[in-house]
Amino acid sequence: MNLYSIETGNFKLDGGAMFSVVPRLLWEKTNPPDNKNRISMAARSLLIEDGGRLILVDTGIGNKQDEKFFSHYGLWGGLSLDRSLLENGFHRDDITDVFLTHLHFDHCGGSICIDSKGNYVPAFKNAKFWVHQNHWNWAKSSNIREKASFIPENINPIESSGQLNFIKNQGPYVKNSELGFDIILVDGHTEKQMLPVVKYKEKTIVFAADLIPTIGHIPVPYIMSYDTRPLITLKEKTSFLKSACQENWLLFMEHDPFNELISLKMTEKGVSFDQGSTLKEFF
Predict the structure, then answer these.
(1) Separation of alpha carbons 69 and 221, rounded Å
(2) Which of 225, 222, 271 is nearest to 246 (CA)?
(3) To 5 degrees, how large is the angle CA 102–CA 106–CA 112?
(4) What's the pTM value of the predicted model, to 2 decimals?
(5) How many Cα atoms are found within 13 Å in the side-chain-facing hemisphere of 228?
(6) Which of 45, 126, 149, 156 is the most buried (most CB within 10 A)?
């Protein structure tokens, strides 16, 4: 097995929304905002090369939305999914499986592109797309709170392509899934968000997704206002962080712009950030 960090691009989100009731004086220490109160965010995917499979975990925002849409999210930097794949020796047509932790636009937008005829089509023509069945049903009948995050052109073409596959296990821990790795299921942010658990070179790496978006979100009460069930997030984070410390997990950070792979430590005040590195530096 080989792992690769795939940088799909960077964007910004409102710091108040990202930290909810936590005062700015606290969260700006780890996540400094710009003059519009927006914090910098990464859209970082994980590429898993395992035998004959090339599995991409999440696909970033993509580039098919219009200028007005992107203007809300302050895109910055010159990173792109295709460029990052190429730098690691791959092409999007090599991808055999796309694993989507959930269907919010910043996690699945790059799954769909516009073809020469102006149609929305899968950006990975040779891949199976994997989504949790409960989450798919949740997204297709989205609630008012999440509706803006579930964009139809990111979702419907996956279904119509015939490339859609479901993870059906109810968890909360799925052993040896169809893709060869374990999955942690969490419901606080959205229904059945999936966190891959990958055994790699005698280490356990967990794709943190939106359970812990940045290192600023490690303290248990530091959760997003985007979470649909914040009290459940509190319970899930408490259990997750305890396990991460006890079992020495490394967390692969999807959204932290400065830290790709992190370790945690237990202190008198609870679990805290220990060290950050890149996959290449660590291994």
Answers:
(1) 30
(2) 271
(3) 85
(4) 0.95
(5) 18
(6) 45
